[in-house]
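Quick one:
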Amino acid sequence: MKAVFITGGTTGMGMELAKLYAKKGWKVGVCGRDKTKFDDNFQTEKDQISFYQVDVANRAELKAAIADFSKTIGLDLLIANAGIGYKFKTKIPDFEWSYKMVHVNFLGVMYAFEAALDVMVPRSKGQLVAISSIAGYNGLPGVSAYSATKAAVQKYCESLHIDLRQFNIHVTSICPGFVDTPLTQSNNHKMPFIMSAPKAAQKIAHAIEKKKMVYAFPFFFATIVRILGMLPRTWYRAFMSIKAVNYSKE
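Output:
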């Protein structure tokens, strides 16, 4: 029986992934800061899911949780899903929240990968997955640190994909567009091509199974974003200054 550990696995897309893998017959470990969310959101799956009350920004806590899960259950797949975004998209960033975002969105991925590699490298097998975002392809107005952390996750995974192949460890970066989760439900702007969390989880699981290096979706939205990334940066900045696509506020 295979085993997967998912950070940020008590709500949103992480929760849907945990339920999906449990339904597939996997042993699942999830972590989150609030146990009540686990108790409220998991009813029938609790026998297959181990919960760890952990802040992913705490390196020691996260490493201990993943180490315990791997020793008692195993570890074939690690999904670093935990992440936070800006509730308010302002032109002057909330720096305290931005610093926290760096710790959760990027360092949290590194801490999770570090713990998983302690298990996977000696065994010469395993798969590491990080949830990045389409927002990482370009610097978006109003979400400076979010775009930066998701871009960092993409490049971090790309480097590790090259480095870890010799250990038979696959690395996948997932780049979703808008997904209907608690993270996006606070947005007060249009979210083109928004997708339900269960549907997104199905797509992510399929990409993981195929061991894709990068998977961005939905396809049409991802294509638009990539084309914008190819523009001369003066053109891109001019386009993103248009009020209709610039969601940042004074």
